[in-house]
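Annual report, structural modelling task.

Input specification for the adenosine-5'-diphosphate complex:
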Amino acid sequence: MPHVAFVAPHFLETTNLYLASFASLDGVTLSVISEDPQEALPARLRPHVAGYYRVTSSLDADALAAAARGLTQTVGRIDRLVGALEQLQVPMARARDAVDIEGIRDSVAQSFRDKDRMKTVLRESGIPVARSALCESPDDLREFVNLVGFPVIVKPQAGLGTRDTFRVTSDADLAALTGRGVVPSRARPLQVEEFVRAREHTCETVTVRGVPVWRSGTRYLPTPLEVVENPWIQYCVLLPREDEETVWTKFHPINAAALAALFGPAASTAAGSALTHMEWFLREDGTALVNEVGARPPGVGIMPLMSIAHETDLYRDWARLIAFDQFTPRKRRWAAGAAFLRGHGGGTRVVSVKGVEDAVAASGSALVELRTPKVGQARATGYEGEGVALVRHATTEGARRALLDVIEKIQVRYG
Ligand SMILES: Nc1ncnc2c1ncn2[C@@H]1O[C@H](COP(=O)(O)OP(=O)(O)O)[C@@H](O)[C@H]1O
Ligand SMILES: [Mg+2]
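The model returned the following structure:
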């Protein structure tokens, strides 16, 4: 019976979904590593949890290693150390190294986490990526700009959620960035890349011991950069009905080669039984570039969208993949989409929410779930906004229409 140790920094809603999925599997011994006290573990999950270890920081590899050792003593040898959040991936990999647990080890985790290393590995394997450099000084940055010209994109070496990511189109932008203290240094290098004008797609891939067995993809409308540049935009993620269209399938060989390059020889081990989240650019001329890859389940609603579109529970499917190296590929039955509801205006709270009834009436049976922002609710810090709508339709166009109904009709104001 595999012993899975799941890292749940706090028992937040999404984390609980992943945790509940492991708890629901027969034949798994489940332990939990958390910063929260054991009493915080949701009551319905308690009967399924064999071991519990509290850590002061779940982002600290040493703390995770100590937890893994502790659980090994009390519950037994750990077969899988797992967590869904991007920030956990490197500390968990280091803890696997320290305690000798199968799965993604530090060197592989770095290839996914470090944007410069990721692009270097991909480029060296002949996979199309944007030109990029890791800058350790303003001179490095200037040199790169001189080489590729404006615009460029400047972002952290190990970022997430488009945080601290800037489009730089001119010398004035560059000076403004410096004014804001965004200056590359040896201690804090910055990733700089040629700006790619393209549609932004994702490719979610399930590999079993390195072999791709299932894929799904979405399109960001508009791109995460535009979403962050324009805080009022209510944006969408669309999962199309067609899984055999060449827009998607032409990318599959690139996706496979990129994953093989990033996993390296570890692909054929337990590390290679993974659900990965790849972001890629599709340019006007039909060519594709890989942007980045997470060796973890996707965010921005893509997990529920994949579940809806394939009539399955992807959270549970992922848990089974991790625990048993098993995955049953599902056919796509629906197009699906998520619309993220965000407000206009300044202020720190939601002060009004309008148009909900109109949106519900217009989107009709396509609307699967609607979480409306609540008056008084604090303004969200990330780009996922204060509310979300999930839709599904037999056609991609129908899902797109329903998404538009939601974002055109629902109006949120901050104050
Ligand atoms: N080279 C690039 N060209 C154009 N847009 C980019 C480029 N790199 C990043 N972006 C934009 O910034 C967003 C965030 O960058 P990304 O590399 O995905 O980092 P993360 O998601 O980890 O913050 C992307 O989704 C994309 O919209
Ligand atoms: Mg990204």
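Residues 83 and 259 are 20 Å apart (CA to CA).
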